[in-house]
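User: Run a structure prediction on this.
Assistant: Running it now.
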Amino acid sequence: ALRKAFRLAQGDLERSFSSMQVFSGATVALCCMQPSAGTVWFATVGDSRVVLGDMDSGRPVFATTEHKAHNPDEYSRLEAAGAQVVQKRYDDGEVVSRIFIPKTGVPGLAMSRSLGDGCLKKYGVSAEPEISNMTGQWQSCRLPSVMLASDGLWDTVSIEEAISAMA
């Protein structure tokens, strides 16, 4: 159901905002809970993340992965689709990647998955979410807590710092 929801959202963007979504897009981080069944699911596209923490221990239990082009699996998909991926490694070890339409210098997208960003879909930028069933991990937490945030937070705050601030 979550994969279908993302496909429908991408299709709606393409139909309703055809010209706007060509060079615009969004990341998504969601947590879907079904209390009666005790199930918890996370789904993400882009550089937003979902973190599950145990407030009793003050420790992270699970964190989704950001979808960046320097992730080897993401890079392979993009390269196979013909995208131009430019990576830069800074002295502090940070790696920054940008995805371009070959030989154009545009758009320079920082994430390898998104809703929208239609100009890069044929070059491997995907709206396919990464989905995690977190039911077991959730149930193992004494005081579970979930944080959903974009790269605006995760580029400056570590997962451990975020969990500590929530505790």
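Residues 2-16 form the longest helix (15 residues).
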